[in-house]
Amino acid sequence: MSSLPGLPFEKNRYYGGKMLTSADFCAEQSYVDGKQMFLNVVTWGSGILCGLAVKRLDDSSFLVDSGAAIDGAGHLVVVEKACVKTFSSFRGSDGLKGKSAILYLAYAQEEVQEVRAVNRYDGQDEYQKNRIQETYEFYLEDWKEMDEEKEDRSFFAETSVVRNKDYVVSMRVPRYASRGKAVRLSVRIQKLSDAELPFEFYGFLQLPAFMTENGEKEIDIGCQEICLEKGDFYCRDYWILPDHEDIGETEIFLKPDTVRALAGTETCSFRKNARLHVTFTKDSPRVLAKRMAGRASLDDAAGKQGGIPLAVLELEEKEDCLSVSCIHEADVRSYISVPCREEEQEGYLSWYKDPPRFRTDSKPEPDSGEEGADSDRGSVQPESMIRGGMLEIPLDIKMKKGQVCYSEEIVHGLGPGNVYVDVGILCGENTVVYGDVYGG
User: Fold this and answer.
1) For the chain, which residues make up each domain, given as ranges?
2) pLDDT, tens only, 183-221
3) Is the separation of the CB atoms in 64 and 90 below 8 Å?
4) What pairs with residue 190 in β-bridges?
5) What is the mean pLDDT of residues 268-272?
6) CA 236, 239, 244, 248: dihedral to nearest 10 degrees?
7) Class for domain 156-303+327-353, per CATH?
């Protein structure tokens, strides 16, 4: 049974002569509230509906914009107007130990409107609160870096390559790759601070079980100097295609000694062991998307209890107290999209596409009057895939006419079956002579 609050649902059963007490009316309220919260969790999930931007005013005060959100229990949390808060007013501010903290928004209740109770029970106070006002509160907790190896139910394999107070460079790819379908690998650079610093990044990714659209086994993911505003990001996407049918899983990793990052004139540290783990499957992208969108259980929803993260605060000590040097919302805030399931599935599907096909010699279309013209009508003929490359075959200087030389095994990556190889001799930089070649 799920641990979501209010389950199983229970409501009043009315009958003639039933005496209604405050407990019965509370049960009625709990039933209606519980149903609405349940629908919020399973339909919308948890996250920010609108607004709630956090802006730093000075070292110790902030402006939180108006907005609305749904927490992990299904409560609708509304901040009706923008409010200014000081750092010390946040619950948990006096217990922070690290250099970064997360600001959360949480649902709260407050009893208001005091009235005199009539027909009191023994021991009951004479005056009681007549209303419950739904409100909110903010609190702080120490920032805990998310584990790069996320649980299996996550759709993406993700890792960060560079992360400092100004920039973060991250990579992501679907955790499952559908055989025969190209998959999108994304590299994102995001600005975290207000500092006016240009950023440069250089590096190569190695693809042991994939290839690019050009047949390459590595990708240059670097970018020359860019300048971003706080919160902006620069993203580059690469389409890669599985090129081994007999491999069940693989890793994409950084090529040693190729990574370098500069923020202004400062060299940034990076993760040398950053890698993405990918599993190959025969399932189609649509099957994968539906499975990932619908596999969350009620227990998964129940595990998301707690406040709604709004921002990360970077802290520094000043005169025996903590102050906030900067605020960034990247990789912390979660927004609720509508409609939930359909849009989520389409977003997952955007990470796949059919592999590229390259047409060789075009063949003339048969005349409509020729025999067999109708046989091709209504069907798409597969296009040939060609792969170019260069392989050195050492030749003996004393070779004679009729002697045969053999190359090493040619790794073509075209899959099982017969492969036609046309051999030629490279003459100059751009000229290849195919077939039998005779010369002195």
Assistant:
1) 22-142, 156-303+327-353
2) 999 999 999 888 888 999 999 999 999 999 888 999 999
3) no
4) 168, 233
5) 85
6) 60
7) mainly beta
